Automatic annotation (TrEMBL):
Transmembrane segments: 36-55
Keywords: Membrane, Transmembrane, Transmembrane helix
Protein's UniProt name: PEP-CTERM protein-sorting domain-containing protein
Claim: Membrane is one of the keywords in the record: yes
Superkingdom, taxonomy of origin: Bacteria
Length: 58
């Protein structure tokens, strides 16, 4: 398996984790600050890993 493909797969997992955290909200309070922060961090990491994987394949 090429390293670029591995980075794209890692980006997909991170994107799924960000989506899972974003969907998990509290019944009465909604999303908490740490949930939003962690989801944004995972989203940025997913985008960076995917972009790096695409650039490695080119």
């Amino acid at each position: 398996m090429d390293f670029g493909v591995g980075l794209m797969i890692l980006g997909g997992f991170l994107l799924g984790g960000a989506w899972s955290i974003w969907r998990a909200d509290h019944d009465t309070e909604g999303r908490t600050g740490p949930q939003v922060l962690f989801a944004v961090i995972l989203l940025v990491a997913a985008l960076l890993a995917t972009a790096s994987g695409i650039l490695r394949l080119v």
